[in-house]
Design a protein that fits this description.
Layout (H helix, E strand, L loop, with lengths): L6 H4 L21 H15 L6 H14 L3 E5 L2 H11 L7 E4 L5 H9 L3 E4 L10 H7 L4 E5 L10 H10 L3 E5 L7 E2 L2 E2 L6 E5 L13 E5 L2 H10 L21 H11 L2 H19 L6 E2 L7 E2 L5 E5 L2 H10 L29 H9 E4 L7 H14 L3
Parallel strand pairs: 2-3, 2-4, 4-5, 5-8
Antiparallel strand pairs: 1-9, 6-7, 6-11, 8-9, 10-12, 12-13
The structure holds pyridoxal-5'-phosphate (PLP).
């Protein structure tokens, strides 16, 4: 049986033929030989496959990028969210406010600690609308989880202000926003914790799954360190029942090498976004390019436009070799998994309207200017402009 918006995704099952512009191109990543040498050393010399010294080194460097005192390497961004709520004792009976247009993991982790996800509609930057947050706060609200969608940070100044007045924690879902800043202050440094993903699609990726939680609180850092490793104080003593959520040494080795390129990766994505902005300006009757604010460094995990006749444009691009995608076609409150929350179509009109018009263009760091030009040209052809 089809529930909610799932009928929508049928029309997106287009096969991209003769791919000319890939959505992501991981085999082009640099440092493969160096990484393999480091891994050879791990395999043949140290054998410290879990929590090796590279994990600590990566945590230290990651905390520097995020301008926080601490960072804890975890096995995924999902666990960074889940464990952040665990260390804040968020659970059954509590409510957590978040946006309905994120990746599934934001809401799933709220539900999986036993709390109730409460959605608040988004603004025209695809981020939670600070004007609507206060109306959703109840005596049961414990936390707000803004998502820095596309790598564009949510309005943290206003969100932190609301949280302070209502004595709520803010957990940043910064999975898409490594090295993004507002007025020079890094995503992941505003909230009580910042949650990052190093999934292969992310700007800073590992060779599988990986995540990081950042915090300035020594108390939360200590708890996160315990929870990620079975609650063990030492080999034989357990102070709290924990989880197995360690970042593998192998993944830290990969991330450390790629971290040297993080600025290049980010700046290249920013440059590509600008090329699209300029190239698509002629299509302004049909295409709305992403918002830009002079004080914000957005890192373009995704380059999302709003497009007239989106579904046909999506098909046309894919049929012409451009791996365009949609993030995300089915809002979270309309997912089958969310039915028990009682939301219905029409509850979050901005998010729902965006779900019908958004389109993600490839923006990764390995694209050539020729490929970007091809995407722009293909869009112009579609609109006959
Ligand atoms: C916004 C957002 N939140 C959470 C996650 C979960 O991260 P992970 O896949 O590392 O568990 C992701 C990415 O996948 C994401 O994009």
């Amino acid at each position: 049986m089809k529930v909610g918006y799932s009928y929508l995704i049928d029309q997106f099952s287009v096969n991209t033929k003769n791919v000319k512009v890939k959505y992501i191109d991981l085999p082009k990543q640099a440092h493969a030989e160096d990484m393999l040498n480091d891994i050879r050393e791990l395999l043949l010399k140290t054998g410290q496959y879990t929590l090796g010294p590279q994990v600590k080194e990566f945590e230290t460097r990651f905390a520097q990028v995020c301008q926080t005192r601490h960072a804890v390497g975890l096995n995924s961004g999902t666990d960074a969210l889940f464990l952040s709520m665990k260390v804040l004792n968020i659970g059954p009976g509590d409510e957590v406010i978040t946006a309905p247009n994120s990746f599934l993991a934001t809401t799933a982790s709220i539900a999986n600690v036993g709390a109730r996800p409460v959605f608040v509609d988004v603004d025209d930057e695809y981020n939670i609308d600070p004007n609507l947050i206060e109306a959703a706060i109840t005596p049961r609200t414990k936390s707000i989880i803004p998502v820095h969608l596309t790598g564009n940070p949510a309005d943290m100044r206003r969100i932190m202000d609301i949280a302070k007045r209502h004595k709520l924690h803010v957990i940043e879902d910064a999975a898409q926003a490594v090295s993004a800043t507002i007025d020079g202050k890094a995503a992941g440094s505003f909230g009580i914790t910042g949650c990052f993903s190093m999934h292969p699609l992310k700007n800073l990726n590992v060779w599988g799954d990986g995540g990081m939680a950042t915090t300035n609180s020594k108390e939360l850092y200590d708890k996160l360190m315990l929870l990620r490793n079975h609650g063990e104080k030492n080999r034989d003593e357990c102070v709290i029942w924990g989880y197995n959520s360690r970042l593998d040494t192998l993944q830290a080795i990969v991330a450390l090498r790629l971290m040297n390129d993080l600025d290049d990766i980010t700046n290249t994505r920013i440059k590509h976004a600008r090329i699209y902005d300029e190239g698509l300006a002629r299509l302004s009757d049909y295409i709305t390019v992403p918002p830009r604010k002079p004080n914000v460094r957005q890192v373009y995990h995704t380059y999302v436009v709003q497009a007239k006749d989106r579904n046909n444009l999506y098909k046309y691009l894919n049929e012409n070799g451009v791996e365009a995608k949609i993030h995300y076609p089915v809002p979270l409150h309309l997912q089958e998994a969310a039915q028990y929350l009682g939301y219905k179509e029409g509850d979050f009109p901005v998010c729902e309207a965006q779900a019908r018009s958004i389109l993600t263009l490839p923006v990764h760091q390995h694209l050539t200017e020729g490929q970007l030009g091809y995407v722009i040209e293909t869009m112009r052809k579609f609109y006959k402009a």
